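Section handout, structural biology tutorial.
Before the tutorial, make sure you can parse a SMILES string by hand: atoms, branches in parentheses, ring closures as digits. In the record below the ligand is magnesium ion, and the chain has 473 residues. In the tutorial you will relate the predicted structure tokens back to the input. Do not try to memorize them.
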Amino acid sequence: MTTSVKEGRLLSGSSEDALTVCVLDDEPGMVEMLQESLRCLGFGSIGTCDPQYALQMIDQGRVRVVMSDIKMPGMDGLQFLEQALHHDPGVYVILMTAFYSLDNAIAAIKRGAYDYIPKPVDRSRLKKSLEELAESFHRRKRIRTLDQQLLTDLEFHGVVGRSPAMLEVFEMVRKIARHYTNVLLIGATGTGKELVAKSIHQMSSVAQQRFAVCNCSAMVDTLLESQLFGHMRGSFTGATDTRPGLFEYANGGAVFLDEVGETSLPMQAKLLRVIQNREIQRVGSPEVRHVDVRLIAATNRDLRAEVLAGRFREDLFYRLSTIQIRVPSLSERLDDIPLLVQFFLKKYNQAYSKQIQGLTRRTQAVLLQHSWPGNVRELENVISCACLTSVNEFIDVDDLPENLQKPSSQSGHPQDSWRPIPLNEVRRQHIRRVLEMCKGNRVRAAQLLGIGRTSLYRFLKRSGKKPADPAAM
Ligand SMILES: Nc1ncnc2c1ncn2[C@@H]1O[C@H](COP(=O)(O)OP(=O)(O)OP(=O)(O)O)[C@@H](O)[C@H]1O
Ligand SMILES: [Mg+2]
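Predicted structure of the complex:
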């Protein structure tokens, strides 16, 4: 049968509130009839006899509800349900059958069906089911709006976070911003140190003054020195004019020294002089100038270890670290992920003129399982790419980079993928990997795990796997 699309009267409010239902049945007459019922009930519909077409509609995000017959040649309703949930775990499937029994209904719902209704379909029964569903969509939409509001409330001077670890960072920033002269920010790459530095400046009493940023790892010493302290004309080849450095430029405000752990020992001596005496000298000039700047330094290195290794001056370390703020890794604050995702979606929807609403449930789950070695920067890249490439209303797993789609292929660096997970989960993952390695041979797996076969069977049973199923776990 050729697919037909019938737009129904809208159930409530604007067109974006309308629910479009895909009707899947092997009998074209039945499809027509159900579409007519849906039209009378106020729902738009797409009718088809082809399960693959219905799956395509789900993939394209054109429908979030499918009414499917159970008895169909090729792919039956339960197989369709499984496929549909595999394509998008957020889809709602209503199964219809001429052979209704309560047991089958419960079994279908346990397998993920939203509802299970007898044929011929009673219009008021269908109405109730779809209206409940529409109500739940509207509720979720309202929650999304509230979340947007929350996002505004939980943005701390451009830094998004709601996790206890980030709230602690905000609290610390609030406490020190008015009083600091030097602060050291420590944290892995991409955790948001620069953003936190900006928020410190914004909350300080010199917020109206300049905030100058210098990435200490991006330049050779001579260039870095001239960038920070300025130079006199003719002081080195290429110095065609006299220029003030960043410390002078930001006089009265703040200088952010990113990657301070990468500086050489001679440069550290010069920085120490700024910190101790607030004094600088332009390259090639004997004149000592006084600057009134606040200093925020950041590093992703363990500076204490660098001191022990003789690569970082101990006196500079102590001077810098009187106030230390540790910006936690993203894996330590997974509860920030949904909020950050929303924040980046908003940002990239605007940048790319898109209208992406969110992520499918399985995509959300994938993000929460990833170890995020690149922290928030990595998450931002993932969302920005997905936003650019996704053609649907909701970002799905296919829109994510490959290393996230296949988590097992990223286990090359154990310390990178580390994240705090419950011991039971570690045990479960480890057993599963050993079993995979032994191709399901449980005797061999038990030997490698150093446990008895019965213990392994007991564990598998407890985690709901049949001992006889070699692919279980
Ligand atoms: N909490 C956050 N809220 C919103 N955006 C964030 C947050 N943390 C980081 N970002 C974004 O992630 C990216 C990386 O952040 P930032 O440059 O501040 O990290 P960093 O710790 O300084 O990294 P590096 O050590 O590599 O210099 C930036 O685009 C920043 O806007
Ligand atoms: Mg940085």
